[in-house]
Design brief:
Strand order of the largest sheet: 2-1-3-6-4-5
Strand content: over 45%
Radius of gyration: 20 Å
Largest sheet: 6 strands, antiparallel
Number of helices: 1
Distance between the termini: 52 Å
Number of strands: 6
Mean pLDDT: 81
Structural class: alpha+beta
Order of helices and strands: HEEEEEE
Shape: globular
Low-confidence stretches: 1-29
Length: 116
């Protein structure tokens, strides 16, 4: 009987790890956002921008006048652009896990997510 438990334990552990590896990250990725706020100190109206799985430009449906931001991503930096195409010079940059108050209100139309 003891031999059976020993043989099943690695298979069970592998199955649990495999299930966690498949289900865990998908759930976590779907909730990670860049939050753009209309007021300083991450308060006021908020526009949540879903963080993509990899580097890409995300066009906002509507532009927002933002005074602060919080980037929940652990790996991607967010470059904020006033246009809808992530071109030119970013108006602000928010590091992974960063919270930033801007010196003045920025019109944000798109966000380029990049790896450091």
């Amino acid at each position: 009987m003891r031999r059976t438990i020993t043989l099943l334990a690695p298979v069970t552990a592998a199955a649990i790890l495999l299930t966690g590896a498949i289900a865990g990250p998908a759930t976590a990725d779907s909730t990670v956002t860049l939050n753009l706020y209309t007021e300083h100190h991450q308060i006021g109206d908020v526009q949540e921008v879903p963080v993509p799985a990899d580097e890409s430009c995300v066009e906002l449906e509507t532009t927002i006048g933002s005074l602060s931001a919080h980037n929940e991503s652990e790996t991607l930096t967010a470059e904020l652009y006033s246009n809808s195409s992530c071109t030119g010079t970013p108006v602000e940059v928010v590091d992974p896990q960063g919270k930033v108050d801007f010196s003045h209100r920025h019109k944000v139309g798109s966000v380029q997510f990049i790896r450091n």
